[in-house]
Each structure stands twice: as C-alpha cells, then as structure tokens.
Amino acid sequence: MRAFACPACGRLAPFESQSCPSCSTLLGLHLPSRNLVAIPNDEVVVDGVRWHRCVNWSWQCNWLVAEDSGSGQCAAGRLIRRRPESDDTIALEKLADASASLRQLLFQLLDLGLPVDSYRQRDGGLAFDLLSSRTSGQQVTIGHANGVITIDLAESLDAHREALRVRLREPYRTMLGHLRHEVGHYYENILVENGPLIDDCRVLFGDERASYSDAIARHYKFGAPEDWQQSFISEYATMHPWEDFAECFAHYLHITDTLATAAESGVMLRADLAAWAMRDDVAPRTSYHDADLDDILEDWQILSGVFNRVNRSMGKGDLYPFTIPQPVHEKLRFVHRVVTTAARTDG
After folding, report:
1. Neighbouring-strand partners of residue 143
2. What SS3 state is found at 206?
3. pTM of the complete model
C-alpha cells in the first residue's frame, strides 16, 4: 500500500491517513496530484479549486471532493452503485473496510493510466455493488457483468474468508485480491475483446468464446489438471480463458503495486551486502510503464523472495505464495502490453 510524506512535518503518512501519525495535521488525499495534502478547517484550495472532505469521512475515507463535483462523495464512493440499507449497521461497517480496498484499487488504476469510466458516464461503465450475504439473508455472488463488479462484504470477515480459502485450496484470498481479479474481467472486456489485441490474447489464454457454464461445471467436478502449475498462476485460472486473464491481471496489479510501495519506501537490495550471490543491486521503481516485463519480473523474483523470508521470520506464510512459469511470464507480458497501450491511448 502506498505511503506519502506528511506535507507539514515530512514524516511517513500512510495512504489511508486522515491525520499525520507524527504531528496530527489533518490530511486528505487529493486524487489529481496523487498526494496527501493538509486540510485546515476541513478543506483546502489546490490550483484554484476548493476541496473538502468526502461525506464518508466518518467511515474512514480520507479522499477529498472538489467543490464543483456535484457530489459529496469522492471518486471511489461515486463508483458504488448498490450498498447495504442504511439501517444495516453491521454491513455498513464492512462496507467501510471494503471501500478502503476499493480506494486502493482505484488509485492504482489511475496511477497506471487505465481508463476509469463510471457507470454514471456511459452504459457498461465501471460500477461496484457491495452487498452482504450475512446480513441480507440473500446469496451474493462475486463476479463481473457488463461493467458491474459485485462483491460480498462477508469477505471482510477473516473467519468467513479464511474458511473459503482453505475449502477452495487457495494460497491467497483478500478483498483487494477479489477487486483486482474482477476488474481484470472489466478491462479484458473493454480493452481486449472486439479489438486488435484479441487474436494475440486467444493464442496465450485460449478462446474466451468457449462455454463458460460448461467450464464451471467441469472445473468444480474434476478440478484443475494435474500439471496446471506448468502453465497457470493458480488452479482457478485453469477454469476458462476469462479467468486465466483475470487472474494474471490481478497478479500484475499485485506485483506492480508492491514494487511501487517498496520503491517509495526507499527499499533497495545491495549486491555487495547480501548474504547470497546477487548479480546486481535491485532498485524497484514506482513506475514500470516504460520497462519491459522482464525487468519487472527480474526485480520481483528477488524482492518477493526477500519479502517471503521476512514473513517467515514472523511465523507467517509467504507474502507471495506463487511461482511464475514461462507460460505465465508470457501472459503477464501481454497484460503489461494491454495496460501500457491503454495508458498511452488514454493519455
């Protein structure tokens, strides 16, 4: 997760900070500049525009809203199409947790230069239905359809999420992971399908026109192929070409965001100080837009190994419990191409 320097004292101020942990200056995230700014009297003027706190401030949202935006909600809040009823206080608490992950996702998408068109702007635009199966008594199926991403807020409950992770034999399951996976479906839909990249996509991931319902039935009856580790990032990715792309897209976001966080924190591995043989120093970057996918994965292979050992030093599992075989390497290269091409076009 990204972090910033407090504009008042220069000390560390985490991405979600509403005030500086060192000097207590009131802070808000100004999205256009991708930075935290001081907000005396609950508002601030930036480049001639007055910004005030999001109406969801009491739910731990620290994003600012332009006075002329026509809404009291921040850019992330305006993407939420459906939410629990106002009297469902338990679900609303979980909505606050999920919204924090949504803000982290949106920040990264905009930082990468990906287009984020709201459902309010066009049919098929991005929208989020954040609902709770626990308090509504109704089934909530996590998924994507025509720009709408549905998330079950019960996934914010550690016991619920961990039970599903174990039952489904997943090495990793988080709210942010769900959001990154589902938004992968959205971007495949708007950036790849019916466009010049679709043929290359089918070569790598398979033909997405294959029956999805048949693929689901087959996957849950027989499971993943025994040799799935040789060509896929996860068992779930083997189910259908759509899921393979979405899983790879999510991992691309995992990798680039973690590398950017490390870079902003000044993390660097020095070959002359390492206890093992390193060919060169490793200096992660805040942006790999102009880099080759090989550069990204070279940095990631070494850094993720270090992060995994740090986790084990605390008695926890690996931070990144995945391996990237060559076929997945090439799939991630395609995702990098999709992202960077979209950023150039959008820019």
Report:
1. 150
2. coil
3. 0.96
The candidate with the shortest Cα–Cα distance to 152, out of 171, 128, 169, 168, is 128
- As given in the structure block, the two tokens for residue 44 are 């601030």
Name the β-bridge partners of 101. none
Would you call 315 exposed, middle or buried from its count of C-beta atoms within 10 A (0-12, 13-18, 19+)? Answer: exposed
* Token pair of 104 as six digits: 């982290």
pLDDT at 65: 97
Torsion of CA 109, 110, 112, 114, to 10 degrees: 70
- Edge-first strand order for the sheet with 43-46 is 43-46, 49-53, 64-66
Contact 171, 163 (CB under 8 A): no
Amino acid symbol at 298: E
Which pairing describes strands 64-66 and 127-131: parallel, antiparallel, or unpaired?
A: unpaired
pLDDT tens digit sequence for 58-96: 999 999 999 999 899 999 999 999 999 888 888 888 999
CA–CA separation, 77 and 61 (whole Å):
9
